[in-house]
Amino acid sequence: MKKNILVIPGDGIGPEVTTWGKAALEKIAEIFGHEFVFEEALMGHAAIEVTGEPLPDETLESARKSDAILFGAIGHAKYDNDPSLKVRPEQGLLKIRKELGLFANLRPILLFDELLQASSIKPEILRGTDILFFRELTGDVYFGEKTRSEDRNTASDLMIYHRYEVERIAHKAYQAAQQRNKRLCSVDKANVLESSRLWRETVQEIAKQYPDVETEHMFIDNAAMQLIKNPKKFDVVLTANLFGDILTDEASQIAGSMGMLASASVGESTGFFEPIHGSAHDIAGKDLANPLASILSAALMLEIGFGLKEEAKLLVDTIDQVLKEGFRTHDIADQSTNRFKVLGTAEMGKLVLK
Amino acid sequence: MKKNILVIPGDGIGPEVTTWGKAALEKIAEIFGHEFVFEEALMGHAAIEVTGEPLPDETLESARKSDAILFGAIGHAKYDNDPSLKVRPEQGLLKIRKELGLFANLRPILLFDELLQASSIKPEILRGTDILFFRELTGDVYFGEKTRSEDRNTASDLMIYHRYEVERIAHKAYQAAQQRNKRLCSVDKANVLESSRLWRETVQEIAKQYPDVETEHMFIDNAAMQLIKNPKKFDVVLTANLFGDILTDEASQIAGSMGMLASASVGESTGFFEPIHGSAHDIAGKDLANPLASILSAALMLEIGFGLKEEAKLLVDTIDQVLKEGFRTHDIADQSTNRFKVLGTAEMGKLVLK
Ligand SMILES: CC(C)[C@H](C(=O)O)[C@@H](O)C(=O)O
Ligand SMILES: CC(C)[C@H](C(=O)O)[C@@H](O)C(=O)O
């Protein structure tokens, strides 16, 4: 199989983890006889530094031409500390999501048995958890009109949904639920928000087309609580952009660490694969980051992007093996025992490849 | 001390738990020689049934005249299942918050040692946690303009903040932090939302007036994760209406159960005290609800509303004692051992009063 892959390392720990996601793809190509052609492009703070733009036209062009994109992370402390800056790294990520029509963000909560202990949640609560999040990614308050009054004392963002936006992701989520445990939980705030009432109405309609799937509607506040109280009760979770952002980060504690979770953004064409962790500037360049989420992003690309199930499984199994042998990065190492061999980013990356 | 207290039982389990919050206040009056005069009023589904309105004028009038309000819960499955209904219970709660100018919602995460085991989070992660949330309560996407297009295919809610709204609650939160561990974490989504950028800018300004308090700014997605990863790192958490709704429900797992958390809404005049749990229609009327959050709401009324610290402490200590003796309601009983004596709502209420 021949594929063109665009690698966008981005900011913070992005470059150091993406190195290993890319290396994993190269290794897979070698083992299975595929041809993966890589190109690299700038986005975020890294792009602003060079071109003044968070998403240069060139990057967008390359993205459109590629078969899949492997992304690292975005964001920089400079902008976080100064909310008045007009050009911001995250605009690059939001724009590429919109431009490529990546309306469905899939975030599987993959639980490695070996990491049950790494979570702050009790192992007996976690064991057996298997959740697949469908986060809507190109609508909501992320993309609604933003305003700032002239005196700068009032600011707003429009939380807005169109029925077709809810429909298309709901179909995807229901179809996935049919292949899984046939339960779907749609999360909204329909007791307060009109956009959530549209969301709920629409999901209720779509649900009728999937009578084999059991549907539940939950308010976001309750869902944030249930997710840690009893994660096993969830199968597919379908939710809006903002709520999905919050719930999936929270859910990373189920997997032991953010450093273990990958996501796939799909929609109209090219798929976009990235760790769910952020740029983590505080540990950037210190060889402390966990490269496994990037390697798992590569696995998602193989599976969801290219339909290469066996290749994806090899990566996941290898990570499982490495964890079984007691190797850990800092974020997933239990510091209170010395059962674990704690590795830096590069060592962990090399080990998985081996 | 003479005080007029308005009791609004509301919907679902509201009435059955509020009975015990009110009884606790009566008992305190008796012991300490205060005169608490009670009046009762309708709100929510209960009010719609009788008057057609979720917040009858009469209730609002009584509220304005009272010194404090003890509230139960709001909401009903009927409305949750039918998003198209125009008149909804929650409108009553939102309106009374707005009308009474209750802009600051304080949610202390009170951790009873005895309940460390009741949480899904590991006791060693929880031990020592002590968080006070300041949730903004009369702004944000809760109160911004709502629209629905004529074809009903597009719906929106305006997420909006004015600088003064952020300032007034920030001052309250900083003042509380000065009396506590002098750390304040402000939670927003300033990397995406303009209203959050206003929020962050404003908090940065106010922070300068409280140099003895250490300020941190955190994105909501990260905060939802950190809260369960390492709850001890938080002291005062300051956040917007929607984010506060989500984070505090999530934080209820720290306290072992939603059934243990109370909140105080304060602002321009009369204080409003309520459990953070909802109406829980599924268990309403079954004697399964936990009355402790309502009794703790009464304690907050005594402390924050009336400045009666000793009286409040007596209630909290009594609950502590009852838990130490092994009594539990269903939500906080560990079903896997028989160390606990599991009580119904009424039995638990009576026990605390005794
Ligand atoms: C960086 C940020 C804009 C982004 C988001 O909020 O979508 C990130 O948190 C994510 O979840 O991918
Ligand atoms: C019932 C609902 C409107 C309310 C809210 O979202 O504010 C509740 O969840 C709360 O937290 O008090």
From TrEMBL, chains A, B:
Its EC number is 1.1.1.85. Its main location: cytoplasm. Keywords: Amino-acid biosynthesis, Branched-chain amino acid biosynthesis, Cytoplasm, Leucine biosynthesis, Magnesium, Manganese, Metal-binding, NAD, Oxidoreductase. It catalyses: (2R,3S)-3-isopropylmalate + NAD(+) = 4-methyl-2-oxopentanoate + CO2 + NADH. Residues 4-352 form the Isopropylmalate dehydrogenase-like domain. Binds 1 Mg(2+) or Mn(2+) ion per subunit. The record marks Y142, K189 as: Important for catalysis. It is an enzyme of class 1 (oxidoreductase). GO terms for cellular component: cytosol. GO terms for biological process: L-leucine biosynthetic process. Mg(2+) binds at D221, D245, D249. Pathway: Amino-acid biosynthesis; L-leucine biosynthesis; L-leucine from 3-methyl-2-oxobutanoate: step 3/4. Homodimer. PANTHER family: 3-ISOPROPYLMALATE DEHYDROGENASE (PTHR42979:SF1). Belongs to the isocitrate and isopropylmalate dehydrogenases family. LeuB type 1 subfamily. This is 3-isopropylmalate dehydrogenase. The gene is leuB.
